[in-house]
Amino acid sequence: MRGTRLRGALFLALGIALGSFVTCAAAQDVAGMVKNLKGQAQLDRAGKSQPVRVGDSLMEGDQVSTGADSSIGIVLRDDTLLAAGAKSTLLINRFAFNATTHEGRLDSTVKRGTLAVISGKIAHANPDAVQFGTNTMTLGVRGTEFIIDAGDQP
Amino acid sequence: MIGRLLLLLSILLLAGCAAPQRVILLPAPDGKVGAVDVTSAAGKQRVDSAYGGVNVSQQGQISSFATDSAGVEREYGPLLAARPRRPVSFVVYFQSGSSSELTPESTAVVQSVLAELEQRAAPELIVTGHTDAVGTDEFNDRLALERAQTVVEFLRHNGINAKQIEAVGRGKREPAVRTADRVAEQANRRVEITIR
Questions:
Q1: Of A2, A29, A132, B111, which has the most beta carbons under 10 Å away?
Q2: In the predicted model, is pLDDT for residue B161 greater than 80?
Q3: CATH of the domain at B99
Q4: How many angstroms separate the CA atoms of B170 and B186, rounded?
Q5: Looking at the structure, do residues B149 and B105 belong to the same domain, yes or no?
Q6: Residue A108 to residues A6, A93, A148, B169: CA-CA distances in angstroms?
Q7: Shortest Cα distance from B151 to chain A (angstroms)?
Q8: Residue B102 lies in a domain
């Protein structure tokens, strides 16, 4: 009896350990790629800032900011197309995508400026798995194209 | 003192009058219109008409408006122009029951893929294999991936050297033609080559 319970606890611990390992692995996944750039854009990743170039990979947790008269085009791995306009800041809070099943998760915040979105395969498979937001609203996506204008923010 | 009060008042007024945020729904190139559900602290509203939109105040008040293609172009032209080129797909088919032999017509796709790659600055190739509904899920997932890998090899052999090539197996999840389970269907034994 005690042996069973101990074994159960061991399995639980192993499960949690494996679970957190899988989460860590997912956080390392590439979310998308920069396809076009006009002017200047900056990438903030893990507390470090660097200029963005065409062909750069973006990861979950990355934040991209554009300068004046600048814009950037990004394709996420599920074929979501994004464009951020001038003086805009976009944060990719969460991204996960399974190319075989099309299951995944996309959660992104427009901190300031403008974002044009053409939704991709995650939204097509499960609209509830995709969310965009600003500091005053959240958007649920029902497979579509749209513009978010978060205005000038401090 | 009065000067300071006026300054404070104008700051408050400015904050209150800050431009609202907005969402505008656009039609897809084929005219299809989806929907977005906008939720704020003060309410929730669905936008589901082409060029329809909502303004959301800093306090969360939601109000609807409608514009048109010219209005969107005037205000957001540079933003729309910055959207990446849409992905393009080509489909190749397999000889019956084979994960290695393409149909003769399918080999002509190479030229189209090459031409499309030249149009793009940082192209990625995603090669996705599909199966018909004969066989188990595990079998079909493996067969789909093998078909995809065959096509990747075929593309490489024909001089296509995109830095980013990914092979994906979708199994029987996305048939081109719907069939009952365990039905053989040539049209579903295919590989999709997507350039994005």
A1: A132
A2: no
A3: 3.30.1330.60
A4: 16
A5: yes
A6: 42, 5, 12, 28
A7: 17
A8: yes
Residue B5 has pLDDT above 80, yes or no: no
Tell me the domains of chain A and their CATH numbers.
31-149 (2.60.120)
Q: In terms of domains, do B51 and B25 share one? A: yes
Q: How many domains does chain B have?
A: 2
Q: How many residue pairs bridge chain A and chain B with CB atoms within 8 Å of each other?
A: 151
- Residues B29, B93 share a domain: no
* Closest chain B residue to the Cα of A117, Cα to Cα: B83
Q: Which of B28, B38, B128 sits opposite A145 (nearest CB)?
A: B28
pLDDT in tens, B62-107: 999 999 999 999 999 999 999 999 999 999 987 766 777 888 888 7
CA distance A17 to chain B (A): 27
- Which 2-21 residues of chain B touch chain A by CB within 8 A? 18-21
Q: Tell me if B102 sits within 8 A of A34, measured CB to CB.
A: no
Percentage of residues of chain B with pLDDT beyond 70: 89
Three-state SS across B89-124?
EEEEEECCCCCCCECHHHHHHHHHHHHHHHCCCCCE
Residue of chain B whose Cα is closest to the Cα of A39: B82
Distance CA A1, CA A31 (A): 47
Residue of chain B with shortest Cα separation from A145 = B26
Residues B77 and B96 in one domain: no
Residues B99 and B138 in one domain: yes
Can you give the residue range of the structural domain that contains B77?
18-81
By Cβ distance, the residue of B20, B81, B196 closest to A79 is B196
Averaged over A52-81, what is the pLDDT? 97
At residue A105, the pLDDT reads: 97
